[in-house]
Structures are given as structure tokens and as C-alpha cells.
Write a structure and sequence with these properties.
Low-confidence stretches of chain A: 353-362
Radius of gyration of chain B: 16 Å
Number of strands of chain B: 5
Number of domains of chain B: 1
Shape of chain B: globular
Shape of chain A: elongated
Oligomer: heterodimer
Mean pLDDT of chain A: 89
CATH topology of one domain in chain A: Rossmann fold
Largest sheet of chain A: 6 strands, parallel
CATH class of one domain in chain A: Alpha Beta
Structural class of chain B: alpha+beta
Number of helices of chain B: 3
Number of helices of chain A: 11
Low-confidence stretches of chain B: none
Number of strands of chain A: 14
Strand content of chain A: 15-25%
Mean pLDDT of chain B: 92
Strand order of the largest sheet of chain A: 6-3-7-8-9-12
Helix content of chain B: 10-25%
Helix content of chain A: 25-40%
Largest sheet of chain B: 5 strands, mixed
CATH architecture of one domain in chain A: 3-Layer(aba) Sandwich
Strand order of the largest sheet of chain B: 1-3-2-5-4
Largest interface: A-B, 23 and 29 residues
Strand content of chain B: 25-35%
Order of helices and strands of chain A: EEEHHEEHEHEHEHHHHHEEEEHEE
Distance between the termini of chain A: 22 Å
Order of helices and strands of chain B: HHEHEEEE
Radius of gyration of chain A: 23 Å
Structural class of chain A: alpha/beta
CATH superfamily of one domain in chain A: Alpha/Beta hydrolase fold, catalytic domain
């Protein structure tokens, strides 16, 4: 049976978290979401981040639109890649019998201080409810900095935490936050040419980089300086970080009439309309078309919001791995889930999760 | 996916043949009545005169002839469509010329004001020899 754990924190309207059912031998995985996220990031991530575009499948075949009295010339429509079903971290971990906890942080778009204090209250409540269990902190994006600040302020908690695993967390800050105005300008410029489809694909990025929560993580910010001052890896706690190197969010596609559609046939009606899909030159894939202002939005260096080089922990004794995925994909990418499960002692072969593990936790 | 901006001339001719419907037969021998107002003529009764070819198309044809001085071109079918209605069709029971002899040329003209709009398509089929 899932266990409800209550805690007290001012301003939190639902001061309780639910620990899912699972194998009591395994640690409890606590998920810390990133800026602007909520509890759904772990269970239904595309609800908040509908960026699950299938940007790798071949383009669809030509489409016959039938006969017409008039020639078919030019663009039929613009659209983005189709969205595909994803596996959440909750599903991936619970399928391996891990107990999981996720919650919606207070002030998810504000400064980090309140979420850190709230997590202290939550962790105290969890530790008291499960006095014999170990915990894993699995943090996405800013959640990784939340975890670091919490551990710096509460070193004793490390005795109950086996792993801190951060997914695309900008430990060394974000250069993108420093050039938010340039990002705004680049997106506005694209929108003026290609219209609302650019806002659909990139509007979230424009909003994100201007949030106080994101600005707090600007490279060299006062917050990062105080966090790193005197910070050290805590004994007994294993640190793993992951970063992303793909900014290919989605292709921008256009259905256009084929040449044949403009040539009258000896037929009634005379024009046979066929449309074919192309990637729009100069703009697709979408993030690749932005000027490489910073490593965050440069293919091979960033994941749209963070630079891989800045996702390392800023101290030694840690392990870092990068994958060619973007920032949102870290919430559902199966290869990443397999890598994390392997860290947690789950045997995985050929990218398929095959079952409970090698006795790491036995 | 085919590139919409690259042409495949042979493919276009083959596609044209695949789509071809003999409209003379359709509207004189089938059970489908000809559209209202259509002037439907046999080629023998009303040969297609080059003077009927709109100026732009005439220039296109002249350029083609200049580039292919050894070819004789005879016009075998003509269709004019005005605002989605066929106004003139010159054709008979004959099939399209063979692929190697086939030539088609066409244009669509439009004029639009707040009071009216016009869309005129002219399509000619010729035989190269």
C-alpha cells in the first residue's frame, strides 16, 4: 500500500507526499523536479513539457489530396514532428519495484531558498516514517542544485542517502541566463518570419530563461558562488551527474504541393493535388536554427537549457555521463533510465530493463 | 519523399498519361453530360490555330522551337477553363501522342478585384515529329 507522509511547511497547500509501494529492500527514490515543474514531471512529464517530438523517424510519404479545378502551388501547411508516448521515471522505477516519491515544490519558478527549506521538512518526515530505509535523490535540472544546497545545509542527512543522481542540472550555472535578451531577440526574429509555429516550439524557452528561478542560476551568480563556497562531497554518498548534448527538439516541417500539382492534366477536374513534406530550410530542426549564442543551445554542447560542461558536480569524486538528448528528454529517455537503473544495481541488457538486480541492495 | 522543387520530366509525362481521360469520348459517348456552356469541337472541324495561343505561351513555344529546330510541332488538343468551368475543348477520339512525341504547355492567369475574380487555365497538347 502506498504510504502518505505528512509534513509541515508554510505556504504548501498539500503538505504531504505519497511513497509508492515497492520492494522494501530497495532504497526509496525521491524525485526533485526542475524550474517550473511539478509532481507530474516524474509521473506524466509531457503534461508539463509537451516536447516529446519524434524528430528521428523518417518523414511521412506523400499524400494524395485529390483532384481540383485550380492549380496547387506553394505551401499547404506548417507543422512540427508528431509527439510520441513516453515512459516516465515513476513507471521506469516502479517497474523495478523501487518505491518512489515526488511532489510539487513551493515556488517552482521563484528563488531556490523556499524549496530547499521545504525539502528539509519533507526529508525529515520521510526519514522518520522510514527509519530503516536508504534514499536516492534523483533530481532533474534545478532539482540538482536544490539537492546540493540541502546536503550542504544538512550534512547529517547524507547518512541516509546512498546516491545523488542529477539529470541535466546546471551545477556550474547557465550561460543562457546571462544572454536571455539575445535569446528573446533570436526567437522573436524567427517568429516574425515563420509565425506562431515558432512560438509553439520555442515559446516555453523564452519564458523559461526570463524566470527568476533561471536567472538565479546564471553563470557566476551570487547563489552559485555561495553554494560552492565550502561545499564538499559527503562521505558515503555517491554522486552521478548526467548532461545532454542535443538541441534537436523537433523538425519544422512543411507540406508543400509537388510540381505535378501545378500542371494541368487532360482530365476533369484538371489538377491533381499531391503534397509532400519537407524540412523547412533555414529553420529546421528548430533549436539548431537559433544562432549558437551559448553552449546551451549549440548542438553537441548543450541540451537547450544547460551546457553539458556545466552539468558536472563542481568537486571531485563524482561520475559524469552525457547523452545526445535534450533537456526535456531527460524526463523520459529510456537509455538514460537504463543507465540510472544500472547505477542502482538493476541488470539491464541491450537497453531493455530485464528485472531486479545483482544483489547490490541485498 | 520527392523533392517538390525538382522535376522529373519523364515521370511527369508518364503521370500525365496515367491521368489522361479522353474528354471528347466522356462527354459525347458516355453517360455524363458535357458541362453547361462548353464548346466541344473535333480537331478536324476546328483545327487549333497558333494565333489562339496566349502571348506568354507563344513565346515559350518559340523558345522551345529555337532550341529544337529539327522538330515539327502540331497541336492536337486544347482546353480552356474559366473560373473552374471548361469553356472550350478541342479533341477527338485520338489518344495522347506517344511519350517520345508528347509535348504539353499551359498557363494559368488570374485577375482579382473586389468586384470579380478570374482564373483562366489554357492547356495545349502537341505532337513532336
Amino acid at each position: 500500500m502506498p504510504t502518505t507522509v505528512s509534513y509541515t511547511f508554510p505556504g504548501q497547500l498539500q503538505p504531504s507526499v505519497i511513497v509508492s509501494d515497492g520492494d522494501a529492500v530497495l532504497p526509496i527514490v525521491v524525485f526533485l523536479h526542475g524550474t517550473g515543474g511539478n509532481v507530474n514531471d516524474m509521473s506524466n512529464p509531457v503534461q508539463n513539457w509537451p516536447l516529446n517530438y519524434d524528430h528521428v523517424s523518417p518523414l511521412p510519404p506523400d499524400r494524395d489530396e485529390g483532384w481540383s479545378l485550380y492549380p496547387g502551388v506553394g505551401v499547404w501547411s506548417f507543422n512540427l514532428d508528431d509527439q510520441v508516448p513516453v515512459t516516465s521515471w515513476n513507471d521506469a522505477l516502479q517497474s523495478q519495484q523501487f518505491r518512489t516519491v515526488s511532489y510539487s515544490q513551493v515556488q517552482p519558478t521563484g528563488l531556490l531558498q523556499q524549496p530547499v527549506e521545504e525539502f528539509r521538512a519533507i526529508f525529515e518526515a520521510l526519514s522518520a516514517t522510514f527509519p530503516d530505509d536508504q534514499f536516492v535523490l534523483l533530481a532533474h535540472s534545478r532539482g540538482g542544485l536544490l539537492a546540493r544546497q540541502f546536503l550542504k545545509d544538512n550534512e547529517k542527512a547524507a547518512g541516509r542517502i546512498s546516491f545523488l543522481i542529477t539529470l541535466h542540472s546546471p551545477h556550474e550555472g547557465s550561460n543562457l541566463a546571462n544572454v536571455a535578451n539575445d535569446v528573446d531577440g533570436a526567437i522573436t526574429s524567427l517568429s516574425s518570419i515563420f509565425g506562431s509555429i515558432v512560438n509553439t516550439a520555442l515559446g516555453w524557452l523564452e519564458s523559461m530563461v526570463n524566470l527568476p528561478a533561471y536567472q538565479e542560476l546564471a553563470t557566476g551568480s551570487a547563489f552559485l558562488r555561495q553554494l560552492q563556497a565550502g561545499e564538499r562531497p559527503l562521505p558515503g554518498l555517491q554522486y552521478f551527474s548526467f548532461g545532454g548534448t542535443s538541441v534537436e527538439l523537433t523538425r519544422i516541417l512543411s507540406w508543400v504541393y509537388t510540381l505535378d500539382s501545378a500542371i494541368p492534366q487532360w482530365h476533369w477536374p484538371p489538377f491533381h493535388h499531391v503534397i509532400t513534406v519537407i524540412e523547412v530550410p533555414g529553420i529546421s530542426p528548430v533549436l539548431n536554427s537559433l544562432p549558437p549564442i551559448t553552449p546551451e543551445i549549440t548542438e553537441g554542447q548543450g541540451d537547450i537549457l544547460t551546457a553539458n560542461a556545466n552539468c558536472h558536480f563542481p568537486f571531485g569524486g563524482t561520475v559524469h555521463q552525457s547523452n545526445a538528448i535534450d533537456h526535456a528528454e531527460a524526463l523520459w529517455n529510456t537509455d538514460l533510465q537504463v543507465q540510472v537503473l544500472q547505477i542502482l544495481g538493476i541488470n539491464v541488457s541491450g537497453g531493455t530493463i530485464t528485472g531486479n538486480g545483482n544483489g547490490f541492495w541485498m | 519523399m520527392q523533392s517538390p522543387f525538382k522535376s522529373d520530366p519523364r515521370g511527369l509525362v508518364q503521370q500525365f498519361r496515367k491521368n489522361y481521360v479522353n474528354l471528347f469520348n466522356l462527354w459525347t459517348k458516355g453517360n455524363r453530360p458535357a458541362p453547361k456552356g462548353l464548346q466541344l469541337h473535333r480537331l478536324a472541324e476546328r483545327p487549333i490555330r497558333e494565333s489562339e495561343i496566349p502571348a506568354g505561351l507563344k513565346q515559350l513555344l518559340a523558345d522551345y522551337r529555337a532550341a529544337h529546330p529539327d522538330e515539327e510541332i502540331s497541336l492536337v488538343k486544347h482546353m480552356r477553363i474559366v473560373n473552374g468551368t471548361p469553356e472550350l475543348v478541342v479533341e477527338d477520339e485520338s489518344d495522347l501522342p506517344a511519350d517520345q512525341e508528347f509535348l504539353s504547355f499551359s498557363q494559368t492567369l488570374t485577375l482579382n478585384t473586389v468586384e470579380s475574380s478570374q482564373v483562366i487555365t489554357e492547356l495545349f497538347i502537341g505532337r513532336r515529329a
